[in-house]
Amino acid sequence: MSELQTRVDHSALRVNQATIILLSIIAFVINVPWLVALVGLVMLIGTALRQPGFKFIYAGFLKPRGIVKPDVIVDNPQPHVFAQGMGGVVLAIAVVAFLLNSAIVGWALTWLVITLAALNLFAGFCVGCFIYYWLGRFHLPGFNAQPPTGTFPGMRPSHKAS
Questions:
Q1: 146: closest CA among 74, 89, 85, 47?
Q2: Cβ atoms within 10 A of the Cβ of 73, count?
Q3: Angle 14-134-149 from CA coordinates, rounded to 5°
Q4: CB 148 within 8 A of CB 76
Q5: Cα-to-chain-centroid distance, residue 54
Q6: How far apart (Å, rounded) are the C-alpha atoms in residues 96 and 48?
């Protein structure tokens, strides 16, 4: 097996996670489920485009002004896309719960996404990435990427791209 050569800008991922957390908490505080729907939609669109859903905030505003600097690391993009898609699906289910007048379930699922995004943002552990890599161990089609050498599945790699 050849050494992993793909690179991922983890600054874009962190801005995406921070935006998901911030908007979802605002939705909860002011009790606006449609904002949860919007966050989930952006996440699912990002998944379809194979990039962080809120990358436009990073690439269009924060990075050009030098507010956030790139943090390009040798890593696989596939697990991050998978994780974002999982979060988007969970928020879609939350929206269905809201539509069925089950706000407790809707907010519980929203807080699950907030918690997992915060775990990734602040601790560097991506539960969705962990699941992706474990599904790969079962040789499921489409789960082909392996964690970078020396990296525990789901943890943020520590080595920088050259």
A1: 74
A2: 20
A3: 65
A4: yes
A5: 10
A6: 21
At 120 the three-state DSSP class reads helix
At 151, list the tokens: 């990296």
How many CA within 13 A on the CB side of residue 42?
A: 17
Q: Where are the beta strands (DSSP E) in the chain?
A: 7-9, 72-74
Q: State the amino acid at position 25 in one-letter form.
A: I
- Whole-model pTM: value is 0.93
Per-residue pLDDT of the chain (162 residues; tens, 9 = 90+): 345 579 999 999 999 999 999 999 999 999 999 999 999 999 999 999 999 999 999 999 999 999 999 999 999 999 999 999 999 999 999 999 999 999 999 999 999 999 999 999 999 999 999 999 999 999 999 999 999 888 999 999 986 544
State the Cα–Cα distance between residues 14 and 121, nearest whole angstrom.
6
